[in-house]
Amino acid sequence: MNQLSTPRIVSMIAALTRHRDISLLESSLLKTVADLFAPNWAAIFHIGDDDVPAFSTSLREGIVSQTDFPEPFSELFGTEGVTSFPIMSHAQKVLGYLLVYRRPQLSGEEETLMTELFRVYDNYLSVLRDSQVDRLTGLLNRSTFDDQLDRALGLIRASYQEHAGERSKRKVGEGAGSFFMGEIDIDHFKNVNDRFGHLHGDEVLMILARILQSTFRKTDLIYRFGGEEFVVIVYVDDRGDAEMTFERLRISIENHVFPQVGKVTVSIGITEVRDTSFPVELLGHADQALYYAKTHGRNRVAFYEALLANGEIEAYQRTPKT
Fold first, then answer.
1. Cis peptide before 7, with omega less than 30 degrees from 0?
2. The whole model's pTM is what?
3. Alpha-carbon 147 to chain mean position
4. 3-state DSSP call for residue 135?
5. Which residues are catalytic?
6. Hey, how many other C-beta atoms are within 10 angstroms of the C-beta on 74?
7. 44/49 Cα distance (integer angstroms)
């Protein structure tokens, strides 16, 4: 490790905490680690619902990447040359791990410096999570949608192109791909709260969030917009693939047995995301399709562009501000 002056360390901390986005914060952390310790590689793993650390982001040869490691966390953790640092929440819950590999391994002095840096990182991460993540479901919240949409779509596009041709939870080909946004609303959710109480209603929301996370890839964006409404942005080959993906979600929810409540269904409105799209326009399109699904039997998927082409709805008109 190079000898660092106090102003240099303060400058690094300032650079680390200038971001207002969790994924950018992770990239900044990895680059700070590279500047401080020149490791062979460094990687961040997140703790999933199954308590198994899952790969998130890595840095090799100065390049931050979301390409999965060939080795699982269990093989990397504790390997000679690898130093691990737990990522903690304010409640002292382990959220994940940073693994740093270097030969020679980090010295005691370097580990101490990294631990102190992590205290700053953990505190700042907790602040960001409180502002960006819905506390009940753990999904992104509504306030992040407008702020992060453009950047997030860029990250999804890069990840999709990086993994083109590889198999994943969905069959993804090597085409250019397109973004689609789905607005998901639980049918008759007020009846659930009225009949079973808000505690069971909250349980339905948490279970549905887990179904969403298991249905979509980690590079897809899943938001809870409040109440019983969710929004998902996916990157797939074409409209048919998008419709199939959201239809599979609808069926998974319909077939799931929710404790106490039993059967729950959702209606879904989908629209294509274009380079010229604005968030309010996207929501308007998806909302029109969702309204159509709600008023035509519920428990179904409706596509804005298809409804428009068939003359079943009128084109969305953005209401001008007065």
1. no
2. 0.65
3. 14
4. coil
5. 228
6. 9
7. 17
Cα–Cα distance for residue pair 247/254, rounded to 1 Å: 11
Q: Cβ neighbours of residue 47 under 8 Å, at least 6 residues apart?
A: 53, 54, 94, 95, 96
Please tell me what DSSP assigns to residue 258: B
Cβ(249)–Cβ(215) below 8 Å = yes
Measured CA angle at 243 (ends 239, 248), to 5 deg:
150
Following DSSP, what letter does each residue of 77-128 receive, concatenated?
Answer: TT-TTEEEEEEE-TT--EEEEEEEE-SSPPPHHHHHHHHHHHHHHHHHHHHH
HSE-up of 138 (CA within 13 Å, CB side)?
Answer: 13
Residue 235's nearest CA partner among 140, 288, 285, 164 is 164
Helix (H) or strand (E) holding 301, with range, is strand 301-303
Instruction: Say how far apart CA 270 and CA 256 lie, in whole Å.
Output: 22
Q: CA–CA separation, 24 vs 184, rounded Å?
A: 27
The span from the CA of 41 to the CA of 100, in Å, is 6
DSSP assignment of 147-216 equals HHHHHHHHHHHHHHHHTTT---SS---SS--EEEEEEEEETTHHHHHHHH-HHHHHHHHHHHHHHHHHHS
* pLDDT tens, residue by residue, 72-114: 898 999 889 999 998 887 677 888 899 999 999 999 988 888 8
Which residues fall within 8 angstroms of residue 307, CB to CB, at 6 or more apart? 288, 289, 292, 313
Cα–chain center distance at 125:
15
How remote is the C-alpha of 271 from its chain's centroid? 19
State pLDDT tens for residues 129-146. Answer: 667 788 899 888 887 777
Q: What pairing do the DSSP bridges indicate for beta strands 94-101 and 41-47?
A: antiparallel
Phi, psi of 259 (to 5 degrees): -55, 135
Q: Torsion over CA of 6, 84, 42 and 235, rounded to 10 degrees?
A: -120
Q: Which two tokens stand for residue 202?
A: 């909250």
Q: Specify whether the CB–CB gap between 304 and 243 falls below 8 A.
A: no
C-alpha 310/C-alpha 57 separation (Å) is 44
Report phi then psi at 116, rounded to 5: -65, -40
